[in-house]
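Hi R.,

Here's the chain you asked about this morning:
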Amino acid sequence: MERVLVSACLLGVSCRYDGKAQGVSRLQALLERCEPIPVCPEQLGGLSTPRVPSERVDRRVCSRDGADVTDAFHRGAEEALRLAKLYGVRFALMKARSPSCGNREIYDGSFTGRIVPGAGVAAEALRGAGIEIFDETQLDELFEKLKGNDL
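And here is the predicted structure, written out as tokens:
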């Protein structure tokens, strides 16, 4: 069975910055098609839950209170990548718009809700290692990819 790295918050783990989960009801179908490897890169990088929200601007990640948390985000990305390699992961389902996990767009760093094209730190590292990234708005595409691999 194909192993897929999955943002833990999407699986219902209360690890988001606000201490809540972002469970996605359609994930039951995913769980029937693959073996999920849950990760929260922000926790893996040493950040607490709950934590002050953070946004990415260029190569830096800063929290709303002005703290530079870039190093923690990079540590978390390295750990997520290490787990992906350990489990032979080829696909990841990551939380959209997250400064760690966003795969196509992220918040712009102004903390105003404005969205810009870009990727989170962990998603960028995973993609750089050849792992194909999807977010929760792309479940059908991920299902097709898994089906195409005769799972």
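One quick note: The chain has one domain: 3-148.

Cheers,
M.
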